Amino acid sequence: MCFLQRKSKISASRKLMLKSLMVAKAKEELEQEMEEKEEQKAMYLNEKAPPIQTSSMSLADLQTLCEELHAKIDVVDEERYDIEAKVLHNTREIKDLNIKVLDLRGKFKRPNLRRVRVSADAILRSLLGSKHKVSLDLRANLKSVKKEDTEKEKTVEVSDWRKNVEAMSGMEGRKKMFDAAKGANQ
């Protein structure tokens, strides 16, 4: 079969113009998203850390305020350092485990699997142990065909054909065959 390539219905210049419009729209959306993030950041900082008016504070108040701020900064730095240490430890552990996995894959060559014939009795013995005497003979459950029926059918078919040639000729013979077949089925 011959496959034909579908020609695009849009010209190259139209495609180029659409691409440039899409890029311009994406650029506008990106700039708008950046502005929204900056606004959210400013709102969060205003909410969590309101501006401090230091003009009405005395020198002792300013010193205590600085000490409180430095204490908070120290706490945050300690938390950040602890988290970074945990992350580094976990990344090292992940790398080590990956190296171990790769080593184990390389050491053991997987053999080609062979089909093994195991009887149902052997499977049951392996699962249940040698104490249980369970026999599962699947062939006993199969339907058996009686040989007598097949022999009768063969004897009916093997009669001498020369005797019945004249009797079976014409429409009368066909009617007899039809009636005989109908009687045998019922």
UniProtKB/TrEMBL annotation:
Claim: Iron-sulfur is one of the keywords in the record: no
GO molecular function, one term: actin binding
A single cellular component GO annotation: troponin complex
Superkingdom classification of source: Eukaryota
GO BP of this protein: cardiac muscle contraction; skeletal muscle contraction
Keywords on record: Acetylation, Actin-binding, Coiled coil, Muscle protein
Pfam families, alphabetized: Troponin
InterPro entries named in the record: Troponin, Troponin_I, Troponin_sf
Coiled coil: 20-79
Recorded family membership: Belongs to the troponin I family.
Free-text function comment from the UniProt entry: Troponin I is the inhibitory subunit of troponin, the thin filament regulatory complex which confers calcium-sensitivity to striated muscle actomyosin ATPase activity.
Full protein name: Troponin I type 1b (Skeletal, slow) isoform X2
Annotated gene: tnni1b
